[in-house]
Amino acid sequence: MKVSRSGYYHWLDRPESNLSIENKELTNVITDVFVKSRNVYGTRRIADQLAKRDICISRHRISRLMALAGLSCKTKRKFRVTTDSKHHKPISPNLLNREFNVIRPDTYWVGDITYIPTSAGWLYLATVIDLYSRQIVGWSMANNMKAKLVNDALTMAIWKRKPKRGGLIWHTDQGSQYASDSHRLILKDHDIIQSMSRKGNCWDNAVAESFFKTIKSELTNHYQFSNQQEAKNVIFEYIEVFYNRIRTHSANNYLPPVEFERQNQDLAKSIKYA
Q1: What is the pLDDT of residue 214?
Q2: Is 73 left (phi over 0), alpha (psi -120 to 50) or beta?
Q3: For the CA atoms of 29, 74, 149, 255, what is the dihedral angle to 10 degrees?
Q4: Can you tell me the distance from the alpha carbon of 12 to that of 184, in angstroms, rounded to the nearest whole number?
Q5: pLDDT in tens, 96-109
Q6: β-strand pairing of 169-172 with 135-142
């Protein structure tokens, strides 16, 4: 097929189509949302953020425009289990029983431990999550997995949230740290009810496991920490600034945990004291 020189230049000078202009504008907005999410949002969360800007387009179109712009979210990797359940300490019953959706804050907390690799050795992270909003209400980091690690995380959550005595269930796996005498003493002193997953059943503590998959896929898998203090600084910022206050969560109607609690504060109080 032959094309004349004049025809070629006419093609180059043709006005840009409305669809092309719209796609460029959409790509700019999608890129803005994607970058502000620290490259972690997929099409579902981006579509939700666009809807909040009164831009309603399909996830298929978002996916296509992201691909053309070279935008791809961070992927997940498998990680190893850190639970040491080979002990002879008392085991508490599973009171949570996978009821992960709750209607009041500070009635069900879940916790777990994970590891973070650094050039100076492993750094261990313990967290406390309020199932109501999925907010990380307590956390602790150390170079070992002794009971003090989980004790510090729980103590932080208690100090920060001041849960009603006798009204909080604390759910974890059967790890030796959570079954330790020192940990049970904290629970007793604050009248907190202990609950534990069935042995070897990660689904009984799925929300805590899910957070660790998230922080690894969105953050730590993409860093080579030179020392443990560097890792602590980055993880602190991720939890307190990004995860709790910026990152949207599907369980919260795509609101960040802190914002979800703020918007539902009056409702939660009315339910709490009904």
Answers
A1: 93
A2: beta
A3: 30
A4: 75
A5: 999 999 999 999 99
A6: unpaired
